[in-house]
Amino acid sequence: xxxxxxxxxxxxxxxxxxxxxxxxxxxxxxxxxxxxxxxxxxxxxxxxxxxxxxxxxxxxxxxxxxxxxxxxxxxxxxxxxxxxxxxxxxxxxxxxxxxxxxxxxxxxxxxxxxxxxxxxxxxxxxxxxxxxxxxxxxxxxxxxxxxxxxxxxxxxxxxxxxxxxxxxxxxxxxxxxxxxxxxxxxxxxxxxxxxxxxxxxxxxxxxxxxxxxxxxxxxxxxxxxxxxxxxxxxxxxxxxxxxxxxxxxxxxxxxxxxxxxxxxxxxxxxxxxxxxxxxxxxxx
Length: 284
What we know:
Blueprint: E1 10-12, E2 15-17, E3 23-25, E4 32-34, H1 35-40, H2 56-63, E5 70-71, H3 89-100, E6 106-113, E7 116-123, H4 134-150, E8 153-160, H5 168-187, E9 192-200, H6 202-205, E10 214-217, H7 228-235, H8 246-251, E11 257-258, H9 264-281
Parallel strand pairs: 7-8, 8-9, 9-10, 10-11
Antiparallel strand pairs: 1-2, 3-4, 5-6, 6-7
């Protein structure tokens, strides 16, 4: 059987039927990849090391010590503005929740990372593009407060298109709220590590994602505030190639290190142990 047939949708009695396929293709190098191999490789292409979008719960499994994760996120979004564009926001939320299997674009809780007590918050790009609304902002805030209260490190994995337009100013307010919540963590000299993944843009980049003690990023991640077309129109200058990718930002000081996803837990654990050790040495 030709390999290409495995990528096609199958027909049953004249009707198209979706069947889970055994193979997929890398969007970067177009290499065929056996899906189980891709999952075992943490959704990193074994041919070219392209980092694909990573499901939120798999992300947690890859970072938290086995059996240590205790979920604390449980808030559900509301629609106080009764926003409607091509469809009511309430209906959009129902669809997003059904597709993603969670109330909003974030999941998090207590865990151990390399033995270090931590609060791990992971944004889910599969839910409305990971956009930040009131629930995401509140859960990030509560996560920071929980870490400060219990003396834990805070690790946030960002994957977001920015503020959620359907919540208007309420969404933009989350930038200030999440930033202020981190003050409680810093007052106790507790470590905060931010992990930037593809994509991390808009109000998330302009708030909690970019003000950590240590900022790590995955290879090739799109990171920025506005899109390149908007920036070019504003400053009226040509932009360097790849200027919003993690490698470029590493060279220019916004990112501390670009880390392959397969080595990310080890890198995060090492940073947390160093920062936690420094806090103990300072008598905090």
